[in-house]
Write a structure and sequence with these properties.
Layout lengths: L6 E6 L2 E6 L6 E2 L3 H14 L5 E6 L7 E2 L12 H10 L4 E5 L2 E3 L1 H8 L2 E4 L4 E3 L13 H9 L1 H10 L3 E2 H7 L4 E2 L5 H12 L21 H10 L1 H4 L4 H14 L2 H16 L2 H16 L17 E4 L3 H12 L4 E4 L3 H21 L4 H9 L1 E4 L10 E4 L5 H14 L5 E4 L6 H5 L8 E6 L8 E6 L5 H13 L3 E6 L6 H18 L3 H11 L5 H8 L5 H10 L7 H8 L25 H13 L9 H21 L6 H11 L9 H8 L1 H15 L7 H9 L15
Helix pairs in contact: 1-2, 2-3, 4-5, 4-10, 5-10, 10-11, 12-26, 13-14, 19-25, 20-25, 23-24, 28-29
Bound molecules: nicotinamide-adenine-dinucleotide.
Nicotinamide-adenine-dinucleotide binds next to helix 13 and helix 16.
């Protein structure tokens, strides 16, 4: 389908205005690049036109190329339309509002001048999709702002605000005028006679030392860890280096080759999948988009422990004022200090200025009583994980909170409906399950109880997004989706220890796979005690529950992780480096002896498959139970909650790279060897038999709760 009509051309005051009008974000779809070229040809042939303006209709300039078109044959790519802008005999002014990302910024860079509204954001996020910018972006940006700044922007994929872009030399002007189109036409008239037309391709805006080989070598060294799994960052450096050393044309060829080589790599495909999975997760099947939900403009957090303080910080970081309530003045003061110290550490690291810290602290109000939070749009409860305490808190919230306020719980596993039963307004109650540390981890698992209103879910998701989180919905069940699907992985890790694997070996397998840290090292940070109570509760409720003796004994010995100086590893005072510890080996040996467990060696592949297949099987059961809307939501949770390597797409996407039948066969074997806990899910068996894809599965009944 061609989107030619999405480019409009009209002369105004001697300026040819080319408007991209492709809602919602002006992504460059099929035919649009051709239409830009046609419009330029018309204007260049029209003697009454002296210059051009390229502008987006609506809030954005061009948010990027249409990602659905990557990996497919295109009639022309952005490099061709960018070249046409660049070559225009009459100057072109890019007028940027909202986002100019990827292909959007590449088109703007090919224009001869760039002016922007103060809120504009520019960036080249292609590397985050496993690609390099393919429309001349690496060549023009480098020539315009120098290789150091260009590599920073291209390798991070970050959004650069208008002020910074002006300072760097990406923009020529930031205008306060409310009518950007009029300002751009005015600007275009003022530069219409300038000759030669200034082109980024002709510039060389860098100091000699910034182009030295050492600059590129140190950049390569800084991405070496990432580059183990991802080819795109090193290819991007190669392109920038080509911009410094070679002619514009030759540099473009290097860029085109890198783009072509990367476009269909498994990593790029997985990253594109992850991008769309996150978009999809925002949707509730069969329900109109929740964009119209009222924003949460004031929030409260009850309980300022590990999670509550992180959540309060996340609100303050998002410029949402938040009130914090505790069980006693002492606990409130401890919460305040915890929040202050977290910010102070950021200031010390240099990632936050003292001014910003002061502004953010000022958004957090520490209050003594429930009546102080009554007016807030939303309240998140983050008190102890005990139903009686949750009931007490929700009873009080019900009594004071204004009608329509969101009543949310950060519980990791408790039944939302039971929590909601403490209120007379269960429709307003939902889970918003954040992950530790809540101000850093991206996932917010929005939990839907039987009686949660759809509007509550939509508003909670909107709140989560405003906090910079990626949200996905889970039905209420023990552990919801994220922790429930991960629990079997944790179980198999512990059981493999009993059978002869070591924490270090398992951690290494997982970091080689692409996790930033091994699961045992992570557990030492979050605390071994966090899951201890949950295991006791499950063992009481289910006589067949397989007890995990090793972590239980470590906790009972006081080894709770880094906070106690030892857990799965031993830590030197003031140092976070994990050292293997004989004590753990002794505990493991004692457990193995006591239960007569045979010791053996494990291959890396067996370890990887055993932990991840256990979780894939559980994920299928979650879908079977109708607790997830779609398999891709589970992937979104693993990517954003647990650090699953993004270039592997997610748990279910990765499973498909092995194939459902291979996964099913292995799980069936393990069911014969290890018993009941490995019985394959019926859904997995079906997908294996039909040779389908696990990542495309929808939850039973499609409803999810
Ligand atoms: P925590 O023990 O660090 O903090 C709980 C806080 O709640 C304490 O400061 C306590 O003083 C306060 N509190 C207790 N009863 C209260 C009451 N009646 N009124 C007001 N405040 C009260 O616990 P946490 O780790 O922050 O966990 C809080 C919740 O978040 C739990 O439901 C937990 O399951 C969940 N959660 C924890 C993690 C994690 O990794 N720690 C992750 C996700 C979710």
């Amino acid at each position: 389908m061609s989107d030619k009509s999405r480019i409009k051309y009209e002369p105004a005051d001697g300026v040819g205005v080319i408007t991209i009008d492709s809602p919602p974000v002006n992504a460059l779809g099929p035919g649009m690049r051709e239409s830009i070229i046609e419009a330029l040809a018309r204007g260049n042939a029209d003697p009454s036109v002296q210059a051009f303006v390229l502008i987006g209709a609506g809030r954005n300039f061009i948010a990027g190329a249409d990602i659905r078109q990557f990996g497919k044959t295109r009639s022309i790519n952005s490099s061709v339309s960018a070249a046409a802008l660049d070559a225009s005999a009459k100057p072109v002014v890019a007028a940027i509002s909202g986002y100019a990302l990827g292909g959007g910024l590449e088109h703007a860079l090919a224009c001869h001048y760039r002016i922007a509204a103060p809120g504009a954001k520019v960036g080249l996020p292609e590397v985050t999709l496993g690609l390099v910018p393919g429309g001349g972006g690496t060549q023009r940006l480098t020539r315009l702002i120098g290789p150091r700044a260009a590599m920073d922007i291209i390798l991070s994929g970050r959004h650069v605000g208008a002020d910074e872009a002006l300072r760097l030399g990406i923009l020529d002007q930031v205008t306060d005028q409310p009518d950007l189109r009029a300002a751009a036409i005015h600007y275009a008239r003022s530069i219409a006679a300038v000759r030669p037309v200034p082109r980024a391709r002709d510039k060389q805006n860098w100091a000699v030392q910034d182009g030295e080989p050492a600059v590129f070598e140190s950049m390569r060294a800084s991405i070496a860890r990432k580059a183990r799994h991802l080819p795109a960052p090193s290819r991007a450096i190669e392109c920038v280096e080509a911009a410094v050393r070679q002619s514009f044309e030759d540099g473009l060829k290097v860029e085109q080759q890198a783009f072509a080589d990367l476009e269909n790599t498994p990593e790029a495909k997985a990253l594109r999948y992850a991008f769309f999975a996150e978009r999809e997760a925002a949707k509730i099947p069969g329900i109109e988009s929740g964009l119209a939900a009222a924003p949460v403009e004031s929030a409260a957090v009850v309980g300022a422990g590990t999670m509550g303080s992180g959540i309060a910080i996340a609100f303050a970081d998002a410029a949402i004022p938040v009130k914090v309530l505790e069980s006693s003045p002492e606990a409130l003061e401890r919460g305040r200090l915890r929040i202050r110290d977290t910010y102070a550490a950021r200031v010390k690291r240099g990632s936050l200025t003292q001014d910003s810290m002061d502004q953010r602290m000022a958004r957090i109000q520490f209050v003594p009583g429930y009546e102080d939070i009554a007016d807030c749009d939303a309240v998140i409860e983050a008190v102890f994980e005990r139903m009686d305490v949750k009931h007490q808190v929700f009873g009080k919230l019900d009594a004071v909170m204004k009608p329509g306020a969101l009543l949310l719980t950060n519980s990791s596993a408790l039944d939302i409906d039971q929590i909601a039963s403490a209120t007379g307004r269960p429709g307003d109650v939902a889970g918003t399950h954040f992950f530790a540390p809540a101000n850093v981890m991206k996932l917010c698992e929005v939990v839907r109880g039987e009686r949660t209103a759809v509007a509550t879910l939509q508003r909670a998701m909107k709140m989560g997004r405003a906090m910079g989180k990626v949200c996905a919905i889970a039905g209420s069940c023990d552990g919801f989706i994220a922790n429930r699907s991960r629990a079997p992985m944790m179980t198999e890790m512990m059981l493999m220890l009993e059978e002869g694997a070591t924490p270090r070996q398992i951690d290494k397998v997982m970091t080689d796979f692409g996790y930033p840290m091994g699961p045992f090292a992570v557990n030492d940070i979050s605390g071994l005690d966090v899951s201890y109570e949950g295991r006791k509760r499950r063992a009481l409720a289910n006589p067949e529950y397989r007890k995990l003796h090793v972590p239980d004994r470590l906790v009972e010995m006081g080894r709770k992780g880094q906070k106690t100086g030892a857990g799965w590893y031993r830590y030197e005072k003031g140092d976070r480096t994990p050292h293997p510890d004989d004590v753990v080996a002794q505990v493991v040996a004692a457990v193995a002896k006591e239960f007569g467990i045979e010791q053996r060696t494990f291959s890396d592949e067996e370890i990887l498959h055993r932990v991840l297949f256990a979780s894939i099987n559980e994920a299928c059961k979650i879908l079977e139970d109708g607790k997830a809307y779609r398999a891709s939501d589970i992937d979104v949770m693993w990517l954003n909650g647990f650090g699953f390597p993004r270039h592997r797409g997610g748990l279910m996407y990765w499973a498909d790279t092995i194939g459902a039948s291979g996964v099913h066969r292995q799980i069936s074997d393990w069911a014969r060897r290890y018993g009941k806990r490995w019985i394959p899910s019926r859904l997995l068996a079906d997908v294996a038999a039909s040779k389908g894809n696990l990542r495309e599965l929808q939850g039973a009944q499609g409803a999810g709760a």
